[in-house]
Write a structure and sequence with these properties.
Layout (H helix, E strand, L loop, with lengths): L5 H8 L30 H11 L5 H9 L13 E5 L2 E5 L17 H13 L10 H22 L3 E8 L2 E6 L8 E4 L7 E3 L9 H16 L4
Antiparallel strand pairs: 1-2, 3-4, 4-5, 5-6
Helix pairs in contact: 1-6, 4-5
């Protein structure tokens, strides 16, 4: 993947006539948002150190982005989570919907297995009409929600939460296991599922996801004549 010129294209978006039309770049008051700003790129030694610490080899296109475009910042949704060194080591920051960095080396499950497990869990959701006592339903539902959170923790092992897309939706990049390199979308906040982006057997990888955002943003920010 050749990232040449992408950083410049993103910087030029901030000066476009309709830059504020791009979702996530500014909020309604102009104070928040990524403002098309990118963090500085990382060095080869930085990325290698982060990989060694987290026990993964980052997908090649995302690795190139870190080295040539930036460690994070402007991007889909409210921006791309930045990879940076902290007192706790290398961490991805600035994204809603937390993640455990300790599970990145745990292989992410295949799409079919993840879908099967999610469907089985959804089928067990308690229905109030099946309970004679409301308190019993509430207790059963509370236990089901706890299991739901545990299931999501399992589902996101081996993946990095890269972007908050709004309304609780988040985009994840798989960094280990059979789905490595593929982008997944968490739509559970809208009663959806956690699923791979793209059509079946047509994976969306980081470069395609990010460059599609650049092209879409350029179109949205272009002056209407």
């Amino acid at each position: 993947m050749n990232w040449s010129g992408v950083r410049k294209r993103v910087a030029e978006l901030a000066r476009a006539d309709r830059a504020r039309q791009v979702f996530g770049a500014w909020d309604r008051y102009g104070a928040r948002g990524h403002h098309f700003r990118l963090a500085d790129p990382l060095s080869e030694s930085d990325v290698s150190e982060a990989e060694a610490q987290r026990g993964v080899l980052l997908p090649e296109d995302y690795r190139g982005f870190l080295l040539e475009v930036g460690a994070g910042g402007a991007g889909p949704g409210y921006g791309v989570s930045s990879l940076s060194r902290s007192d706790a080591g290398w961490l991805w920051t600035e994204v809603d919907g937390g993640m455990s960095h300790d599970r990145l080396r745990v292989p992410f499950s295949a799409a079919e297995e993840s879908a099967r497990v999610q469907a089985e869990h959804s089928a067990k959701e308690p229905v109030e009409s099946a309970f004679a006592v409301e308190d019993a339903f509430r207790e059963a539902y509370r236990a089901w929600l706890e299991e739901d959170e545990a299931l999501f923790d399992w589902s996101t092992s081996g993946a990095v939460n890269l972007s908050h897309e709004g309304c609780g939706y988040c985009s994840w990049l798989v960094v280990s296991g059979p789905e490595r390199g593929r982008m997944w979308l968490d739509e559970r906040a809208g009663d959806g599922t956690f699923h791979p982006l793209g059509a079946p057997h047509v994976p969306v990888e980081f470069a395609g996801w990010y460059l599609d955002w650049v092209e879409t943003s350029e179109a949205a920010a272009r002056r209407h004549r």
